[in-house]
Amino acid sequence: MAFPKGFLWGGATAANQCEGAYIIDGKGLNTSDVMTAGSATKERVNTREVKEGLYYPSHKAVDHYGHFKEDIALFAEMGFKAYRMSINWARIFPNVDDETPNEAGLKHYDEVFDECRKYGIEPVVTISHYETPLALTEKHGSWTSRKAVDLFVKYCETIFNRYKGKVKYWLTFNEINCMSMNPWMSGGVLQEDEQSKMQAAYHQFLASAKAVKLGHKIDPEFKIGMMYGGLFSHPNSCDPEDIEANTEFMNKMLFYCDVMCRGYYPAYKVKEFERSNIVLSKEAGDEEILKEGTVDFISFSYYFTLVAGKNTKLAMDCGSLDTGYSNPHLKKSDWGWTIDPKGLRHALNLLYDRYQKPLMIVENGLGAADTVEEDGSIHDPYRIDYLRAHIEEMKKAVEIDGIPLLGYTTWGCIDIVSAGTGEMKKRYGMIYIDVDDEGNGTFARSRKDSFYWYKKVIESNGEDLA
């Protein structure tokens, strides 16, 4: 059997994409709460405040806040061993710098974790997942300010102490490398210049390192990891210039892993800062903090691969990166994302070879438009084919390459609002939710064909993929 006993099969969501209840029980606004979307727009727009007459997908989302017991029961029916989710920071500290946390928010997650534990499901909790409190931006300039480090650590101390014994696995920042491409979504940072982005990233590194040290002190059983936004690329050709450019692209992304796994800035980044006149604001003792706060494991998302080469020009397109190159050997999803199962095995080997830390795949899935048949059934063979092909390559990485893989959580196990476009029609779930792009619907949950297929996969510990 390829996968070890206790392998963490499951699914993943994010609070801002599934919870809804955006100002219920004392929750404050976060960055996603001022992001518009809908079927008429491809790009999410930051309005800085909630404005009348505009649609904000996070306000209702799929009302996981009101349906979490039903949803977790469905996860348990599939046989989940793990549920990767996030805590909404503004639900705990609505004004970010509140003297005391919001008890109603803390109580909600107590109930969520208790429900998971009832079914033997291990929560894997992202501490900050594209839901930075809006007050952090408006009051302090978000992660460009050193103040954000202290506020984040206070938040971590609160939830570490509160949920000790209920949560073992923690991830500090979701897709932290997205600070380089989308600083607003990544951390509520309004500035787009490289100096600001790199200062914000530095403060997140410090905050994560402090959280790791604090977490281990509060509970030595805690396993605290990083989360890399899975950008992996192939060189455009065997032209040495293309290969060199591909290495540069991957270093731009993996430098985040370098710092969080090794505890220091790699030489290539130091030299890049010198050439670009980027000077980070630091304090005495920072080097020790980074060295002492390296993560226990690496988690990452994986949806597609890119192609990079000597003429690479990075741009954001439809919620993902566009390098200016395409891969003629790969098929694409309805949203233009390449489908590259073999790239997942390559990604697992690349990360383990570089860092020698245990790995966890915490996002993998296919966004597609599903059709509900007259009898209520939802046939999604395309999703099953996608997941099967990726699990087969994951299996090879474990069985043949010896990669220490802790778990695999599909994205999103239940239909949720798309982070990139704000749509509902771009569905990832194995559980269908009756909500449209404007937030209209019954919110009823129903099982897709992939629900029953994934249940069989988990029951067989990945052996039965038919």
From TrEMBL:
GO cellular component, one term: cytosol
UniProt entry tagged with the keyword Hydrolase: yes
GO terms of biological process kind: carbohydrate catabolic process
One Gene Ontology term of the molecular function aspect: beta-glucosidase activity
Keywords: Glycosidase, Hydrolase
InterPro entries: GH, GH_1_N_CS, Glyco_hydro_1
Family: Belongs to the glycosyl hydrolase 1 family.
Name used for this protein in its record: Beta-glucosidase
Species whose genome carries this gene: Clostridium folliculivorans
